[in-house]
Every structure is written in structure tokens, then in C-alpha cells.
Amino acid sequence: MPEEFARYPSLRGRVVLVTGGASGIGACMVEQFAAQGARTAFLDIDTINGERVAAETGALFLRCDLRDIPALRLAVAEVARSLGPIGVLVNNAARDDRHGWETVEPDDWDERMHTNLRHQFFCAQAVAPMMQAARQGSILFFGSVSWMKAQGGMPAYTTAKSAVHGLARGLARDLGPFGIRCNVVVPGWVFTERQEQLWATPEAVGATLERQCLKEKLYPPDLARMVLWLAADDSRMVTAQSFVVDGGAI
Ligand SMILES: NC(=O)C1=CN([C@@H]2O[C@H](COP(=O)(O)OP(=O)(O)OC[C@H]3O[C@@H](n4cnc5c(N)ncnc54)[C@H](O)[C@@H]3O)[C@@H](O)[C@H]2O)C=CC1
Ligand SMILES: O=C1OC[C@@H](O)[C@H](O)[C@H]1O
């Protein structure tokens, strides 16, 4: 894996907000945006890891349960007050806990929609006015290959992740006249510590690599590289699109 990351001059000084930045892919993105010289902030429910990442990167960490929309709105406003108008939003936070179709109750369903979909919209709604004033902005939404692969065992999660595409494309149309771009990043199976611990059995890893055209495991930097480009002005005419980073699994 290449050590160096591409440099994006337009990200220097740009205010970037990442949700779910305390671990996994989100933590890698926080690290890389900070390395680009962006004024970086992240929201997460995980205080312990959030404070660790903030100490390591110098990024601003605000604890926030993104299922709580009033709290989300206050946190976004605090980021803008502290760092300046937000120019890039990365809607990364989610939870891919498995759940059987047979046992899901209405409250479970609603909670998983709140955890994986709803906050992506309300974070976009909160930053859009700042981006409208600047006549530019990049909003990234995180999807998943899981629904594309017809992965079972998590129907609420795969539903939420497929809905992200409709959300991004509709907002791309609404916000495009203001120079605001909306795109979806679609990770394949990305081997974070959590994924390794929870699900990376030799059989599951083997089956994934068998399915991928590229026979290597994906890691968070593979996603961060795509995100940096979509966040930067280098992708200035790219919107309403989905970018799959999965080693060719689908
Ligand atoms: N790792 C993978 O294999 C894949 C990941 N993805 C997507 O990529 C993104 C990042 O994935 P990972 O790093 O693996 O996720 P992760 O589960 O390791 O990290 C998600 C982060 O979001 C935070 N979070 C969860 N619920 C929250 C809430 N209510 N309020 C605030 N923060 C909350 C968690 O504390 C955590 O720091 C997610 O959107 C995920 O759905 C998609 C396909 C595959
Ligand atoms: O979104 C996802 O897609 C692939 C799954 O194996 C992974 O655990 C999940 O996060």
C-alpha cells in the first residue's frame, strides 16, 4: 500500500466535519484531513476513542449522539463557531450490527434508521446554509456494498445504506445551483479492527477475496484516498454520483 497520500491544496484551511471519526474509517479520514492542513472536526458517541483521536490529530472532537437531532444541530453549530463555516461534510457514522429479519421490532427498525440514515440528512441540512453562503461545498454520504451484494442478516442496515443513494442524488439536485456537491462513497469490506474482531473468519475473508477482482483486503486508507479527492476542489464538477471502493466485489 503506498505510504504517501496525494496532496490537495484546496483542503488546506478548509473546515471539514467528519461524523463517526473516533474509530475505523472515520478516524483514518480525520487523520488524513488534518494531515492535509484542513481545520478538522469530528462528532462521535465514543468519548474514549474520540479524545484519543483528537489528541493524536489535533482535530476538534465533540461528543454527540447523532440519533439526537437537536444535539446534532447544536454540535454542527459549535463546530462552525469554533473553526469557521463548514466546507466539507463526511457522513460516515453508522453501525452495521447484524440483526435477523425474524426478530426486528418497530423500535429496533427506527433506531437503525436513525443510526445509519437519518443523521446523514440532518447533518447535510445543517451545513448547507454555510455552503450556500460560500457558493461551494462537498457533502459525502457513506453507503455500503452490502445491499449490492444482497448480503442478508441485517435488513434494516442494508435498507438504510441503499436509501443513502436516493438521499444524495436528490440533494445534489437541490443544492447543485449553490455549487454544493453531494456524492456517495461505497466501501467494500474494509478491515478495521472492529471488523477483524467481529466477523473476519478465514472462511468469510476467503469468500470476500474470491469475489473481489483484486485479491487483497481493503483497509481504511483505501477509502480515505477516495474521500480526500471528493472533498477537494479537484472533483469540482463531480456530483450525484456513487464511488465504489471494493476491490471489484460487485
Ligand atoms: N468497514 C466496512 O467493512 C464497511 C463500512 N461501511 C461504512 O463505512 C462507514 C465507516 O465504517 P466503519 O469504520 O467500519 O464503522 P465503525 O462502526 O467502525 O465506526 C463507526 C463510528 O461511528 C460512531 N457512531 C455510531 N453510532 C453513532 C451515533 N449514534 N452517534 C455518533 N457516533 C456514532 C461509532 O462510535 C464509530 O466511531 C460506515 O458508514 C459504514 O456503514 C460500508 C461498507 C463496509
Ligand atoms: O457495510 C458492510 O458491508 C460489508 C460487511 O461485511 C461489513 O461488515 C459491513 O460493515
TrEMBL record:
GO MF term list: oxidoreductase activity
One family name in Pfam for this protein: adh_short_C2
PROSITE patterns, per the entry: ADH_SHORT (PS00061), PROKAR_LIPOPROTEIN (PS51257)
Keywords recorded for this protein, A-Z: Oxidoreductase
Keyword hit for Oxidoreductase: yes
Keyword Oxidoreductase: yes
InterPro entries registered for this protein in UniProt: NAD(P)-bd_dom_sf (IPR036291), Sc_DH/Rdtase_CS (IPR020904), SDR_fam (IPR002347)
Domain of life: Bacteria
Family that this chain belongs to: Belongs to the short-chain dehydrogenases/reductases (SDR) family.
Stated name of the protein: 3-oxoacyl-ACP reductase
Taxonomic source organism: Roseicella frigidaeris
